[in-house]
TrEMBL record, chain A:
Protein name, per record: Gluconate 2-dehydrogenase subunit 3
Highest taxon, organism lineage: Bacteria
InterPro entries: Gluconate_2DH_su3
Name of a matching Pfam family: Gluconate_2-dh3
Organism name: Maribacter orientalis
Automatic annotation (TrEMBL), chain B:
Residue span(s) of domain Glucose-methanol-choline oxidoreductase C-terminal: 442-556
Annotated GO MF terms: flavin adenine dinucleotide binding; oxidoreductase activity, acting on CH-OH group of donors
Organism of origin: Maribacter orientalis
Protein name: Choline dehydrogenase
Region (Disordered): 48-67
Key word Transmembrane present: no
Keyword check for Flavoprotein: yes
Necessary cofactors: FAD
Keywords, alphabetical: FAD, Flavoprotein, Oxidoreductase
Matching Pfam families: FAD_binding_2, GMC_oxred_C, GMC_oxred_N
Transmembrane parts of this sequence: none
Family: Belongs to the GMC oxidoreductase family.
């Protein structure tokens, strides 16, 4: 894929096994070693191809919003989702950077965002004689109250620009928050980490009024035997 | 420019490194043959930390997982999607086909759903069963020994249920159902729709010391770094190399055509190197096409010579015809009893369904001849771009107003997290000669190779089947006490039937058969016209089933490989 790699166009037999680190770890597999190996090996990358990295660098080299606009985005974001202990809010979650990036990554979003920011200041100047970012919280809320409800019977793109803008900014703010480290902690999502799935906890089953069928569970994996190599009889019955 | 020709003569050249090509590589190299694998994309190893997306956090990326660069989201391990830069395809006006191409070692097996279903006895005998399509020249009993070996070599979880057309196998034990899957089981029971454990090629239990065991991150679509799911590179090609096989891999090498001699026999392939944009030639005794149903058809059609003026293997004019994909329609519902969930535990599970519904209906009483299975999704997944974009949009189903801002958004997000269940119906379409791909002489890709033009329309059978899917989904959602999201698509929208190609199960373009006038290969996947060319991808399928095609591609590729070894030994080819 990159130039150096393509020189290896011919990859001879035996040389192609994975990185020793991860490969070894699955021999003496346990959750800790796998976890460590992956974290140690991959902290600098997030799996982009050279072409994809190039595009990200290009996007980062461009600027969509000026400093004032970035501050306005930040001040609107914390009205939409006020920070709350212990998991912070949109600023800790990097929401303004996400808005800047997505406005360039998906250029169709840019006019709505740029136009909406202008509308915010115009509205705030007209009503309160100050730019949106400098208005009081009560004044900001007064402006937001007018544009935060969309008509669910009409397609969004047929509604006024400021309504579309607020919908987009709310979406980016909530998305940005819950896809951040603090937001994931707030949500309580426990996944994306090596573990051994062994069914829904009893208290959760009880809460939702469901139960496992013992006959079904009897067919499921016995996690204490997961590292024992599978063997079958000639009829397909698992022996190990 | 002179074409650069290598002097080495391989025993076999394999074009493509996905499910079919990977299996042929493993079997032929294990038999001691000298094999060259020619792959259009770059090298890829799921264990390479540089390209790995497994276990990434959404905030590792400035776009938080958005699908701007990769159609299925930026963690999806497919380099190439519906579009590949510089490699267009065209359509006959008024028809539609979506073509997914993964340009990388291992191809689409790096991101696929791992749903690994055997075809049943009825699936090989469609015409006998209901008069539609054609029978295969082989039956389940011919393929069963290979399915059995495949289960043990690759590993697939599931259960032996004794169902007539969903054969038993050698299964690893399945994972326990997740919460939403328990709701599905209960909901389906009320409509007498069967539900059984899923059948997916992920290692819930160790099968050897070279591959890891599943650690339940739910991210098989990102390709597993410990090789606990099936990908053709990690499970077939690397092991073939590791055990000392003679396997040379040519990556970034786009095959243009199969070359032939004066007698019309294949002598090898010519390919364009993407690195220097020059044309090269490789020679071999046997050429095996595994480039995917449509790409292999393209190569054959582009391999015109004095001996094969209509393209290689195309004296029947059948190459490219009978193209068909699985049907697909979907629906989702919010289940009030799944709202306000505890997030106290990790329920990622495996990267796919722990339970599913195989086809249960009696088609003789329905207005469509073939069935479908239901795939189920839901649960508390990893938040990525788009999560909470409309954080309380579901308020409208509960008499509340969507929109607003402030602290209440946090409550809304948590209230609805994990409360939606979705269904995908995946069914069998009938193969028609009128649905096809052909060479578009007006358009070439950036390597100067003429591209494919698609001509594919759904028939009433598929549309009627999609209606049945929608009615079933509505009933299931109702059974679970849920509320359907979105309006049920009606006749004007073909009941939500997805465009051909979108399920990425395209098959049939070089179908097998006993009659050289109506088929491209014989029952051992050898071209009728040229005895040293074989096809081991889904092109040889006479019909799709209400199953996914990968497990059958691999079983058949293994069977064809055994035949190639035998024929080479007997010096017949």
């Amino acid at each position: 894929m990159d130039r150096r790699k393509s020189l290896q166009t011919l990859i001879l037999g035996g040389a192609a096994a994975g990185t020793g680190l991860v490969f070894n770890s699955c021999r003496t597999e346990n959750a800790e070693t796998i976890d460590e190996a992956i974290i140690a090996g991959s902290d600098k990358y997030f799996g982009r191809t050279p072409e994809e990295l190039e595009r990200i660098e290009k996007i980062n080299a461009e600027q969509l919003f000026n400093e004032h606009e970035m501050e306005t985005i930040a001040s609107l974001a914390i009205v939409i989702l006020p920070p709350k202990e212990p998991h912070g809010g949109p600023i800790e979650a990097g929401v303004p950077d996400l808005v800047e990036f997505m406005g360039k990554d998906i250029p169709e979003m840019a006019p709505t965002l740029l136009g909406g920011l202008m509308w915010l200041d115009h509205k705030s100047n007209t009503e309160f004689g100050t730019e949106f970012k400098s208005a009081t919280l009560e004044q900001k809320k007064q402006i937001c109250d007018e544009i935060c409800w969309h008509d669910i019977e009409i397609p969004l793109e047929k509604q006024p620009l400021e309504i579309q803008f607020f919908y987009m900014m709310r979406g980016l703010t909530v998305t940005g928050y819950y896809t951040s480290e603090v937001g994931i902690a707030e949500l309580g999502y426990k996944g994306n980490s090596p573990n051994v799935w062994d069914g829904v906890p009893q208290d959760v089953l009880d809460q939702h009024g469901v139960a496992y069928d013992p006959a079904w569970i009897a067919k499921c994996v016995d996690q204490s035997q997961r590292n024992v190599i599978a063997e079958w009889d000639e009829n397909g019955n698992l022996l190990t | 420019m002179q074409i650069k020709e290598s002097s080495e003569i391989y025993d076999v050249i394999i074009v493509g490194s996905g499910a079919g090509g990977g299996m042929a590589t493993k079997q032929l190299a294990d038999a001691g043959l000298n094999v060259a694998v020619v792959e259009a994309g770059p090298y890829f190893d799921p264990a390479d930390p540089k390209t790995m997306t497994q276990l990434k956090q959404p905030y590792d990326s400035p776009r938080r997982g958005a699908g701007t660069d990769r159609a299925f989201g930026e963690w999806d391990m497919s380099w190439g999607d519906w579009e590949v830069e510089g490699e267009p395809y065209t359509h006959e006006e008024g028809t539609d086909f979506k073509w997914w191409r993964a340009r990388m070692l291992g191809g689409r097996t790096n991101h696929w759903g791992r749903i690994s279903l055997r075809f049943g006895p009825k699936d090989f005998k469609g015409k006998t069963r209901d008069g539609h399509g054609d029978d295969w020249p082989i039956g389940y009993e011919d393929v069963k020994p290979y399915y059995d070996k495949l289960d043990k070599l690759i590993g697939v979880f599931g259960t032996n249920e004794g169902r007539e057309n969903d054969p038993d196998g050698f299964f690893l034990p399945p994972p326990k159902p997740r919460l939403h899957e328990l709701f599905y089981i209960n909901g389906a029971k009320k409509s007498n729709i069967p539900v059984i454990p899923g059948r997916l090629s992920m290692l819930t239990k160790r099968i050897n010391n070279d591959r890891g065991v599943c650690f339940y991150c739910g991210q098989c679509s990102r390709s597993c770094s410990v090789y606990a799911d099936f990908s053709a590179g990690s499970c077939l090609i690397f092991p073939a190399q590791k055990s000392g096989g003679k396997v040379k891999i040519f990556v970034n090498s786009m095959v243009r055509e199969i070359t032939t001699n004066d007698e019309g026999k294949a002598t090898g392939v010519s390919y364009i190197s993407k690195d220097d944009r020059k044309e090269y030639k490789l020679k071999a005794k046997v050429v095996v096409l595994a480039a995917s149903a449509c790409s292999s058809a393209r190569i054959l059609l582009n391999s015109k010579s004095k001996q094969h003026p209509n393209g290689l293997g195309n004296s029947s004019n059948i190459v490219g015809k009978y193209l068909h994909d699985s049907t697909g329609a979907s629906a989702a519902g919010v289940i009030p009893d799944l709202m306000n969930r505890k997030t106290s535990y990790n329920e990622d599970g495996v990267g796919g369904m722990h339970v599913y519904s195989p086809w249960w209906g009696d088609n003789s009483k329905l207005n469509f001849p073939r069935g479908y299975h239901i795939e189920v999704w839901g649960g508390m997944g990893q938040p990525n771009y788009g999560f909470g974009f409309d954080p309380n949009g579901m308020n409208k189903y509960f008499g509340l107003k969507p929109g607003g801002y402030g602290d209440s958004l946090r409550d809304d997000v948590k209230k609805y997290y994990g409360s939606v269940i979705g269904f995908g119906g995946r069914g069998e379409a009938i193969a028609f000669k009128e649905n096809y791909c052909e060479i578009d002489p007006t358009t070439v890709d950036k390597f100067g190779i003429p591209v494919l033009k698609f001509n594919y329309k759904h028939s009433e059978f598929e549309i009627n089947q999609a209606k049945h899917m929608q009615d079933t989904f509505e009933e299931l959602i109702h059974n679970m006490g849920g509320i359907p999201l979105n309006e049920k698509p009606g006749k004007d929208k073909d009941y939500g039937l997805l465009a051909p190609g979108q399920i990425i199960h395209e098959v049939g373009t070089t179908r097998m058969g006993n009659d050289p006038k109506t088929s491209v290969t014989n029952k051992f996947q050898q071209l009728h016209d040229v005895d040293n060319v074989f096809i081991v991808d889904a092109g040889v399928f006479v019909s799709q089933a209400d199953k996914n095609c990968t497990w059958t591609i691999m079983a058949l590729s293994w069977r064809a490989s055994d035949y190639i070894i035998e024929q080479l030994k007997a010096q017949n080819i």
